[in-house]
Amino acid sequence: QKEVEQNSGPLSVPEGAIASLNCTYSDRGSQSFFWYRQYSGKSPELIMSIYSNGDKEDGRFTAQLNKASQYVSLLIRDSQPSDSATYLCAVLDIHNFNKFYFGSGTKLNVKP
Amino acid sequence: EPEVTQTPSHQVTQMGQEVILRCVPISNHLYFYWYRQILGQKVEFLVSFYNNEISEKSEIFDDQFSVERPDGSNFTLKIRSTKLEDSAMYFCATRLSLGDEKLFFGSGTQLSVL
Predict the structure, then answer these.
(1) Residue in B with minimal Cα distance to A47
(2) Which residue in A1, A100, A106 has the most chain B C-beta atoms within 10 A of its own C-beta, making it the best mutation to test that interface?
(3) Which of A13, A33, A40, B24 is most buried when burial is the number of CB atoms within 10 A of its CB?
(4) How close A79 comes to chain B (CA, Å)?
């Protein structure tokens, strides 16, 4: 059973702070990892993908991957109230490139 | 930006009734998916569809569920005899190719089974 685990939160940070969201996955051979943002009642929207160990930066977002620890994280710098959403971690099944596994998401609240 | 369109946005039905959820994929995308999300829970894979046939389905996708692409544009999910536990948000998602890992999600259909 492939699992993607996230702390459900809520994670509350003040506006302007760094928000740190974490995810662990069970399938050691996984290669492709994704962060989706989901506003309440809306569909998931892809914000970052990462494939190699280390950091990947895109604007205020930084994804970090550590395959040895089976750990993926998302940092949001200069958090804004508009960043308040649920962040879903997703992993592509290496045995079936057709399937993505999603975590249950971490709810982020950015307080003005 | 191209988008995946789903209809209806909300569907209320009585237990035991059949429902059909509709999706119009992005025009050049080849892979289609249905996911569901029970309130407060994970986005769960139901089924993937490629080249007019199911390529993968989950344990949730039992004989009560079916998918088809009847006219080359719409991609439908049918639930033959709905149960209370089918109440969820159903998302259609599409993907250009296996080499492109970006999933585009539709806005979802909220299904309520009474």
Answers:
(1) B102
(2) A100
(3) A33
(4) 24
Query: How far away is chain B from the Cα of A97, in angstroms, using its nearest Cα?
Result: 7
Q: How many Å apart are CA A37 and CA A87, to the nearest integer?
A: 5
- Chain A residues 77-96 with CB within 8 Å of chain B: 88, 90, 92, 96
Q: DSSP strand E in A39-105: where?
A: 45-50, 54-58, 61-66, 71-76, 85-92, 100-102
Among candidates B84, B89, B81, B95, which has minimal Cα distance to B107? B89
The span from the CA of A109 to the CA of A83, in Å, is 8
For the record, the structure tokens of A1 come out as 């059973």
Q: Is A49 on the interface with B (CB under 8 A)?
A: yes
Of B45, B98, B108, the CB nearest to A43: B108
- A106 interface with B at CB cutoff 8 Å: no
Q: How far is the C-alpha of A34 from the C-alpha of B4, rounded, in Å?
A: 19
Q: Which residues are registered as beta bridge partners of B95? A: B31
Angle at A100 between CA A98 and CA A101, to 5 degrees: 145
What's the pLDDT tens digit per position in A2-51?
789 998 889 999 999 999 999 999 988 888 999 999 998 889 999 999 99
State residue B78's pLDDT score: 97
DSSP bridge pairs for B47: B34, B57
Of the two residues A98 and A99, the one the predictor is more confident about is A99
Which tokens hold the place of B88? Answer: 């969820």
